[in-house]
Design goal:
The structure is a single chain. Strand 6 and strand 7 form a beta hairpin. The chain contains 11 helices and 12 strands. A 7-stranded mixed sheet has the order 1-9-8-5-4-2-3, with helices on both faces. Strands 7-6-10 form a 3-stranded antiparallel sheet, with no helix packed on it. It is 42% helix and 14% strand. Helix 8 crosses helix 11. With 377 residues, the chain is an alpha/beta fold. It is globular. Bound molecules: pyridoxal-5'-phosphate (PLP). The site of pyridoxal-5'-phosphate has 15 residues, from helix 3 and helix 4.
Amino acid sequence: MQFRDLKEQYRVLKDEIDRAIHQVIEEGNFISGRQVTELEGALAEYVGVKHCIACGNGTDALSMMLMAWEIKEGDAVFVPDFTFFASGEVVSFEGAVPVFYDVERDTFNADIESLERAIKAVKEEGKLKPRAVIAVDLFGQPADYLKLAKIAEKYQLLLLEDGAQGFGGEIEGRKACSFGDAATTSFFPAKPLGCYGDGGAVFTNDDKTAAYLRSLKVHGKGSFKYDNVRIGWNSRLDTLQAAVLQVKFKAFQEYELEAVNRAAERYTELLKEVVKTPIVKEGMYSSWAQYTIQLESQEQRDGLQAYLKEKGIPAMVYYWKPMHEQAAFQDLKKYISCPVTEELCQKVLSLPIHPYLSEENITIIANEIKSYCNPAC
Ligand SMILES: *Cc1c(COP(=O)(O)O)cnc(C)c1O
């Protein structure tokens, strides 16, 4: 059994993907080909924002957005303690300080009260300038941007949606990657919408930001590539990846998103009396980057993971360590404590989930969890 079955997806989409790849090779525009522009237009329309700027990966997307906002040394950027490393790494990379805030036990997303405590702690100390909040759509469910926007406004902070895991999610019918002052996503193969390598994108309604990012990602180009008006990067989405994404994006809209939601619902039906199953808040729609259950203790979690492995079922721990405990961040000041994140890191276990997961396999996985947990964990 696969954790995320990209081979099965390829089997289903093979003809179209092969054709799309061959077309790129025949057309020969490997960098910034028409497929990239077409994809950007389609993604922007789907998400409901004016501009989509494709780039090399989701980490570059975050970094370039922080550069657009001139986040720098002496600035504080608030980042969830429970997320993938990149969400905080990019802040340090710009010379600013990531200040970690806690998440909610039920949704794994921003705890608004904890965020406000962190902002107040930084303001009281008076050393750093609070500039921005990064919120993460962890495991596919959008963070609560209605509440986040209010806090950002109250403290005059920029709000960045890290939608690397959230593409396809919704709040009250409004699509993920359209929230905050700007949003980013990743097309890493295992994300809800993934390509066959690295890829990412920024979403913004702001014309100036979009123009800046289009320059930045191609060596700070001006009117053309050899007119360089600023120090930039090289961060582009390959035409081949865009062509693959065009095919996958069609399947994503036509049936994958619905299928992965059916799989998640089925898991919850089978497991809700046995373990703590993930909760999607009223009005929210998840794209299920992960289906993450919670056990009673680290011992039980590790035991279940080992048991499932023995049965040929891969289950992963996302995330095993709070951001503030990562060695790379060991010199950072801890402004507030994040007890929920610390607990989650001991208790979470992500089960195989993807649009091609069969009902039969879901039942097999659920039954193995039941027999380990008997009668409940
Ligand atoms: C994957 C991920 C990223 C980084 O994306 P890459 O394309 O791998 O650089 C950033 N933030 C979160 C929350 C992610 O899950």
